[in-house]
Automatic annotation (TrEMBL):
<dbReference type="Pfam" id="PF10118">
    <property type="entry name" value="Metal_hydrol"/>
</dbReference>
<keyword id="KW-0378">Hydrolase</keyword>
<dbReference type="GO" id="GO:0016787">
    <property type="term" value="F:hydrolase activity"/>
</dbReference>
<protein>
    <submittedName>
        <fullName>Metal-dependent hydrolase</fullName>
        <ecNumber>3.-.-.-</ecNumber>
    </submittedName>
</protein>
<dbReference type="InterPro" id="IPR016516">
    <property type="entry name" value="UCP07580"/>
</dbReference>
């Protein structure tokens, strides 16, 4: 336990619950950011990564539950599991619609499934130190990934340029409902990591692994979508497009993403310092998809 433990802001704590949601994809066009396949597909990668990724979070957390000695944190983790289960299903439900529009993501999702289920899955380790090491490593990886889901959630809640450009309201609602719940539960994964391990070297090591994996999988996902989009003749995504779209406000800005790195690696980091719970809760109260599903 070598970590400095910054205190959470108690006023930010709320009871986490999974909300039922329903989204009707019938009217959502292939390029749901009008005239902008690059932005559309960059964000669409979420539908490829999150179903398997969030199922993996749940799988790991169910194994950690017996090691939690704090009732409040256990309740938070159970609420987190419930929310991630609904997120995973909601993004999975977009895939048949993409198939209907001529974009079959199966070849890519098969790779993502392998990544989470095999590479990051349970290894046949003997009970004891090795098995515990692998569990702690994965808990720390999830904390690092959740730094980015909260970052993206906060971004999409404030990405007004997407509205100005006429982005599909159902897709925006899916992203903002999910983003708002990511902001709402943004402290859980990090607090769980602090509770069961909290080692600073482990935090840095797993951040580097998570960040590299996210960049790798994301750029492959965008390339997959652009190459297989039946309406595009030549679709080669590039880093400069990403930077430009970030400047325009339809994707997260590269400088903002770079600035989020030292924040996570700071010993004083706590997720409650990021994003705004009140904004997230206000969105959740008005989300058409979240209200429609209740
Ligand atoms: Fe999620
Ligand atoms: Fe999350």
């Amino acid at each position: 336990m070598s970590n400095t433990r910054p205190a959470a802001d108690a006023s930010e704590r709320i009871e986490l619950k999974a909300r039922k949601v329903s989204f009707d994809w019938e009217e959502t066009p292939l390029h749901w950011v009008p005239g902008d396949p690059f932005t559309t597909h960059t964000i669409n990668v979420l539908h490829l990564l999150l179903p398997a990724g969030e199922r993996w979070f749940i799988h790991v957390y169910r194994q950690v539950l017996p090691f939690i000695r704090d009732d409040r944190l256990r309740q938070d983790v159970i609420g987190f599991i419930g929310q991630e289960a609904v997120h995973s299903q909601a993004h999975d439900d977009v895939l048949p619609h993409l198939r209907k529009l001529g974009l079959d993501p199966t070849p890519y999702t098969a790779q993502v499934d392998w990544f989470f289920e095999k590479l990051l899955g349970d290894r046949t380790l003997p009970p004891g130190r090795a098995r515990q090491w692998w569990l702690m490593e994965r808990v720390a990886l999830i904390a690092a990934i959740e730094h980015y889901t909260a970052f993206l959630g906060d971004w999409v809640l404030n990405a007004e340029e997407l509205d100005r450009r006429g982005a599909d309201p159902v897709m925006l609602d899916l992203l903002r409902w999910h983003g708002a719940e990511e902001v709402e539960h943004r402290s859980v994964a990090f607090e769980l990591f602090l509770h069961v391990d909290g080692g600073y070297r482990r935090r840095v090591r797993t951040w580097a692994a998570a960040f590299s994996a996210l960049v790798f999988l994301w750029q492959r996902g965008v390339r997959f979508f652009m190459e297989n989009d039946p309406t595009l003749l030549a679709g080669k995504p590039s880093m400069s497009q990403f930077v430009r779209k970030g400047r325009e406000g339809v994707l997260p800005s590269t400088p903002d993403m770079l600035r989020s790195i030292p924040r996570y690696l700071s010993r004083a980091y706590h997720p409650s310092q990021e994003g705004c719970t009140a904004q997230a809760v206000a969105y959740l109260a008005s989300s058409p998809g979240a209200r429609g599903g209740s």
